[in-house]
């Protein structure tokens, strides 16, 4: 598989772009692998990549029921940040941030990571206090954070309604300057390219329909393309975690599934430099390189596996957008789509060895798993390779929910729809 370089770019441009090689092969599944990863989303592909790169395990297959990148990795609003307060989350997401910072070079694939900053708006003195506390905790963890007052917010994002009579007046905000966005499809394709180059088999249109057991251990999977055996099976099927884990006999995974929508407007002149998040109305918004505004808001409160959006949420999120940026009222919405969120009971992820031998679980990403993609793959690969958690995911166990060691970043309690 060719490496991308300025010379390959020029050579292909001069030959009419007819000689580009396929980015990944399309192999037939082998009867057995050392490791099978179920789910060709960002996390599954990153896991396969780091299994090969960090641990030299290349006899690996990624099984994807649809096409690579067709799930949440290609459906999100692309925000990447590490502005967490609790130590387990802060260290994990900051590791992700550091991987993002070198990812295009590492993968030899441009994931278009743009460190344009992420600003969380505050609407009251008490929220400013909370942000000061979170910013201080971040800085103590070695993560960048700046507390902005009202005037600084007005300069950072000039379109915001700063009037004192708006529904949620702006008191200030917490900015993480190193945060930003990445091109979501390119992240999936980059990890696929990196894994394939190291010999990992990426198998599309291959749905896992069941698990093969020997005694109490899982030793392979049943798929729509036949039976495939493996020493270890990792499940990374965000949005379908409870459905797939049920096939392995796990009926009580602490996860609820909800739909989250993304929105893209028609293109307009540069309006928003960084990413702005508006907690009170629940909106996060940025502007793409093409000029479209990309934004999202609340999950739908109803439990659902429907991978499509609905109009009440369009109205709800559009109202939040216009409340914050009144001049968006005349903008046309071009597209909206939905993805399924596996909402965990404390809002934090689950990356661990499963309760059954041979099974490994990567789940519970709620609606913030895109930014976790590199660290999730890094830690899940380490857990699978070593049969023990990496220090960065040691706290993200399944057992924490029955032991009372939850990692409740938002303090919302065991209410998945609130995280
Ligand atoms: C609208 C929206 C906005 C979001 N915004 C952000 C954001 O701004 N920042 C952020 O950090 N996160 C965001 N997220 C969340 C983030 O996208 C997800 O948490 C993350 O992408 C999930 O991990 P993944 O990429 O591996 O999942 P996916 O891409 O969903 O991968 C899982 C794959 O498993 C496959 N699969 C399922 N069942 C089977 C089976 N039985 N056999 C084989 N394959 C199977 C699916 O087809 C899918 O491709 C957003 C999500 C949505 C939907």
Task: Give an overview in words.
The protein is α/β, with parallel strands linked by helices. Helix content is 29%, strand content 25%. The chain contains 10 helices and 18 strands. The chain has helices at residues 6-14, 42-55, 87-107, 125-140, 150-156, 184-197, 241-247, 311-324, 373-386, 400-403; strands spanning 32-38, 60-63, 79-80, 118-122, 146-149, 172-176, 180-181, 201-203, 208-214, 217-223, 226-235, 255-267, 275-278, 283-287, 292-296, 333-344, 350-353, 359-363. Strands 1, 2, 8, 9, 10, 11, 17 and 18 form an 8-stranded mixed β-sheet that branches. Strands 5-6-4-13-14-15-12-16 form an 8-stranded mixed β-sheet. Strand 17 (350-353) and strand 18 (359-363) form a beta hairpin. Helix 2 (42-55) packs across helix 9 (373-386). The longest helix is centred in the N-terminal third of the chain and has 21 residues, at 87-107. The radius of gyration is 21 Å and the shape is globular. The mean pLDDT is 96. Flavin-adenine dinucleotide binds at residues 38-44, 63-66, 70-73, 75-79, 207-208, 236-240, 244, 260-262, 296, 339, 365, 367-371.
């Amino acid at each position: 598989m060719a490496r991308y370089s300025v010379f390959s770019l020029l050579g292909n441009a001069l030959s009419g772009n007819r000689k580009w090689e396929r980015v990944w092969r399309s192999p037939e599944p082998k009867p057995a692998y050392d490791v099978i990863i179920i789910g060709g989303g960002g996390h599954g592909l990153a896991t396969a990549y780091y299994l090969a790169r960090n641990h030299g395990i290349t006899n690996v297959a990624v099984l994807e029921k649809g096409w690579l990148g067709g799930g949440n990795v290609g459906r999100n609003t692309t925000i990447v940040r590490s502005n967490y307060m609790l130590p387990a989350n802060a260290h994990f997401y900051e590791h992700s941030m550091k991987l993002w910072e070198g990812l295009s070079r590492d993968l030899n694939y441009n994931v278009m990571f743009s460190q344009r900053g992420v600003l969380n708006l505050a609407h009251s003195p008490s929220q400013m206090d909370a942000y000061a506390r979170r910013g201080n905790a971040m800085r103590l963890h070695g993560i960048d954070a700046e507390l902005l007052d009202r005037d600084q917010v007005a300069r950072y994002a000039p379109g915001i309604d700063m009037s004192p009579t708006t529904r949620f007046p702006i008191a200030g905000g917490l900015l993480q300057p190193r945060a930003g966005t990445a091109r979501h499809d390119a992240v999936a394709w980059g990890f696929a390219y990196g894994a394939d180059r190291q010999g990992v088999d990426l198998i599309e249109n291959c749905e896992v329909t069941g698990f093969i057991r020997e005694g109490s251990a899982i030793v392979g999977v049943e798929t729509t393309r036949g039976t495939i055996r493996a020493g270890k099976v990792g499940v990374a099927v965000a949005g379908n975690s409870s459905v797939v884990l049920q096939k392995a006999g796990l009926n009580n995974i602490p996860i609820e599934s909800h739909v989250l929508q993304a929105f893209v407007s028609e293109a307009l002149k540069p309006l928003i430099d960084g990413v702005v998040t508006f907690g009170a109305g629940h909106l996060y918004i940025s502007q793409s390189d093409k000029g479209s505004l990309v934004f999202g808001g609340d999950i739908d409160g109803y439990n659902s596996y429907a991978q499509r959006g609905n109009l009440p949420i369009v109205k709800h999120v559009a109202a939040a957008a216009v409340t914050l940026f009144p001049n968006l009222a005349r903008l046309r919405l071009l597209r909206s789509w939905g993805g399924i969120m596996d909402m965990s009971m404390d809002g934090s992820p689950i990356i661990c060895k499963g309760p059954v031998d041979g099974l490994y679980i990567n789940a519970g990403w709620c609606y913030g798993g895109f930014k976790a993609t590199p660290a999730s793959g890094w830690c899940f690969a380490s857990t699978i390779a070593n049969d023990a958690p990496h220090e960065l995911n040691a706290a993200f166990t399944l057992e924490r929910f029955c032991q009372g060691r939850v990692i409740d970043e938002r303090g919302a309690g065991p209410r998945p729809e609130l995280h």
